Amino acid sequence: MTSKPTSRKKPRASRAVPMVVPTEVIGKTTINDIARLAGVSKKTVSRVLNNSPLVREDTRERVRALMQQRSYEPDPQARGLAFRRSFLVGLVFDNPTAQYIVNMQYGVLDALQGSSFELVVHPCDSRSAGYIDGVRRFVTQQKLFGVILIPRVSEDQALADMLTEIGCRYVRIASIRLDQPGHMLQTQDRLAGVEDAHYLESLGHKQLGLITGPKRYRSAIERGEGFSEGLTRRGIALDPRYVYEGGYTFESGVAGAEHLLSLNPRPTAIFACNDEMAAGVYKAALRMGLSIPGDLSVIGYDDSPLASQLWPSLTTIRLPVRDVGRQATQLLLSEPTQTALISVTPHLVVRDSSQPPR
Amino acid sequence: MTSKPTSRKKPRASRAVPMVVPTEVIGKTTINDIARLAGVSKKTVSRVLNNSPLVREDTRERVRALMQQRSYEPDPQARGLAFRRSFLVGLVFDNPTAQYIVNMQYGVLDALQGSSFELVVHPCDSRSAGYIDGVRRFVTQQKLFGVILIPRVSEDQALADMLTEIGCRYVRIASIRLDQPGHMLQTQDRLAGVEDAHYLESLGHKQLGLITGPKRYRSAIERGEGFSEGLTRRGIALDPRYVYEGGYTFESGVAGAEHLLSLNPRPTAIFACNDEMAAGVYKAALRMGLSIPGDLSVIGYDDSPLASQLWPSLTTIRLPVRDVGRQATQLLLSEPTQTALISVTPHLVVRDSSQPPR
DNA sequence: CTGAAAGCGCTTACAG
DNA sequence: CTGAAAGCGCTTACAG
What we know:
The structure is a homodimer.
Chain A: H1 31-38, H2 42-49, H3 57-69, H4 76-83, E1 88-93, H5 98-112, E2 118-123, H6 131-141, E3 146-149, H7 157-165, E4 169-174, E5 184-187, H8 189-203, E6 208-212, H9 218-233, E7 243-245, H10 250-261, E8 269-272, H11 275-287, E9 297-299, H12 305-309, E10 316-318, H13 321-333, E11 342-344, E12 347-349
Parallel strand pairs in A: 1-2, 1-3, 3-4, 4-5, 5-11, 6-7, 6-8, 8-9
Antiparallel strand pairs in A: 10-12
Chain B binds a DNA duplex through residues 4, 9, 15, 28, 30-32, 40-44, 46-47, 49-50, 53-56, 59, 74-84.
């Protein structure tokens, strides 16, 4: 990687037969080395590299063996230059929780494992004016192979349009179907909301409170609506006065709980649409002298590290984020032929913050 | 990025003077376009690009103006191929908390802002056998410009040796000075431990407990030793029976607190070497019917999101991680001439989990 | 201070 | 099924 081999350029028979080669393998093996050793043109090596069918089987085998033996790896930079497309996959995100981002990165890397692709990250602020241009620069400058978009940027149609315009592949992870199956992976937040409702109803709760996320997040809407829908199905109407619009923040959870717990009758269970707000509910409840789950059952959403570290531990919803990242990336890398929509359903994780009402 | 311009290759006067050019700027502007428009060779444009002093001032200005006007950006792929080094900075990490990783990424990107560098991530497991080879492959395959190493991988000398061997730049973020100043940024975990001790002593605590991290983390050792040292300076000896070796996990925090709180006399304050363990202390204390901070003061370390979301909110230590990431990256990108060791000291954030003993 | 030639390690377009 | 030539967009080494 540092010094340029001086032996590379020495004159030699231009159409060499396989031959013994000096072992001073300074510098990385290149396509030329393999071609020379195999006694074929580099174009043929290139064909093998790119799995072209236009190679005789025994030629392919010979070249493959040589590549293995020399532990040859094609230079992504050079391929990228010729392909006009790099071997980089971008992850574009706005501001989910840290754990979500990290799990997603692990998932993407799981799918990239063994390939010559690497993961490059691009946080951004979807509320700032120039963010789409920022993503465009990110994509075009490094000629990214494609990008994974996670909520909330995944929900922005203008962003997807821009990517289509510049011919960049993408996969959106979102809670509703807002693109073709080849371009998205759906997380069934709504179904998780339903599951929540059914669970609380089955415990015997009738007086329920809901703290939603901000409406600009589609996921927030889905979670809340799913919850409401689930209750309706079980014959319980969610009183609008028992719905508080939070902001996915701890403080909004505190405020929401203070509001809901001051109502008469007091809710016996609260579903907060993320764990952070659920932690806020803990604070408000404990400060009011209410015990969890004795006086109040609490359910969160995300299964963040926080959930198992609160006391009592928090009943919450878990999305297998890493798995989602892996599948989304596989979709991104696959030939655009797939038709079935990939969808993943988050599920309830019951811990110690929920029980039947008194 | 998608289609190849057909106009590029048309024959023209080889030594062109500045001239009007068809505005059908299909495809990206290249160094050839700029050279032609400026009436200079592409080598001269290249010199301007690389800030070579060997360019006449007016030539430089003319070229610069043209680059701006055409919003020319050199292709990192092509430069990388010629330079034998990409425009990618790698972040190598083992398993810190998600928030730490994400903040670090933000910091690195702060420093990369406006450059043509991008950030590529590489999580790994420093306990697995082949992890150093994994990093080697990561670095050599994409010919990374350099890497940032964060604890715990930053503490591994074998990894640093490997990087030196293959000629890859690196900056290690670590709590003790284990490399040359140009290769590291020190976080003064020890001083934070001292600050902790002084704070608790100043509140009047005399009976103190310590839950350390695992010894294979240098940071854990520094935090614990700093705490002990700080107490000693204030004339308090830390009884070894009041030191529990945790594992930086929630469960070990619970176990540690259960142990410490069963001692007689009971400690009136516990310093847990990360927030996760501090959350474990909460659980153990609350389960034993002890109130925080009434019966027990608790201090954590990291200022993770958890810290402000526990109730009562957790007094802890904050390292400006994003800032650290930014500075480490600036060091990585700078010419290797710097001599002074960069060091950053984490500081105490007082919240509601600490007060004078009863 | 400036440039023509050759090269980085691959692929595309064409020809056979 | 295979290859020679030209090219991707830059830089190095050399010459002036």
